[in-house]
Amino acid sequence: RSLIFPLLIRGGKPVPLYVCTLAFMFCTYNGYLQSRYLSQYAVYADDWVTDPRFLVGCCVWLVGMVLNIHSDHILRNLRKPGETGYKIPRGGLFEYVTAANYFGEVVEWCGFGLASWSVQGAAFAAFTFGILLSRAQHHHQ
Q1: N- to C-terminal Cα distance for the chain?
Q2: What is the residue-level pLDDT of the chain in tens, covering all 141 positions?
Q3: Which of 95, 98, 106, 111 has the fewest Cβ atoms within 10 angstroms?
Q4: Which domain holds residue 106?
């Protein structure tokens, strides 16, 4: 998300370089910590990839990713070229929640937490929920 979405978005408000840098550093560090744990310290049974927790977690992650991508698509196409100003997104999950893209991201991380069955994965899902809930409430206002 930190690399692809900014390249796809049209127009929008400029974001200060330090905000982009901090977001990139955070995503890099989180990715390192998650992958380091999974590759070096996690111990799973040989049949873990057939365990219901892993399978359901992967399905939840996939549903969240599809929701996130679809919601981002709706957001990117809100304004016509040259248009400015705020518009309320319509369609998809935006008919039910204010920040469908954030909801999809939380669902993704919950799926990852379940599939990894780790404190680290669950903690990141919980922190993501807390941060994005606050941002979603701000967007709603």
Answers
A1: 24
A2: 556 666 666 666 677 888 888 888 988 898 899 999 999 999 999 999 999 999 999 999 999 999 999 998 898 888 777 777 778 888 999 999 989 999 999 999 999 999 999 999 999 999 999 988 988 888 778
A3: 95
A4: 3-140
Which of 110, 31, 15, 116 shows the shortest CA–CA distance to 5?
15
Q: What is the DSSP letter of 2?
A: T
- Cα dihedral: 95, 100, 101, 105 (round 10): -150
In the chain, the number of structural domains is: 1
Of 74, 78, 63, nearest in space to 108 by CA = 63
CA count, 13 A, side-chain hemisphere, 15: 13
Cα–Cα distance measured from residue 26 to residue 124, given in angstroms and rounded to the nearest whole number? 12
Residue 84 sits at φ, ψ, to 5 deg, of -130, 175
CB 85 within 8 A of CB 11: no
pTM value is 0.83
C-beta separation of 118 from 53 below 8 A? no
